[in-house]
Amino acid sequence: MDKNAVAWFEIPTADFERAKKFYEQIFTYEMPEMNMADIRMGILPHQRDTGGVGGAIVKGEWSKPSPTGTIVYLSAGDDLAPVLSRVEKAGGKVMVPKSPIEPDMGFFAVFQDSEGNSVGLFSPR
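Structure (tokenized):
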């Protein structure tokens, strides 16, 4: 590994349009799409040109949503509270509220997205 443990991640979807709408609502941005063979992808915000780790929501034959799979923690900016506050309105469910990481390592939360995946959020405050 170079500087990041994660190089790319994919969050599986059962209903791509529903998942795209969910993530657009909680992060308040327009999600660009990309297709690779039979895989439909919605690209999540990241700074690729400066070494940021990126990821996507994906719809493909092998991608099946699950609440018990690996949890990816998405960056929610300076404070994850605004993003977390939009989860239930967008069709998800807050599983773990904003919680401190000891000692002084920031905050995390976990939600279930519109597809049933468990997804985390991280912020420094």
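Helices lie at 16-27, 81-85. The radius of gyration is 14 Å.
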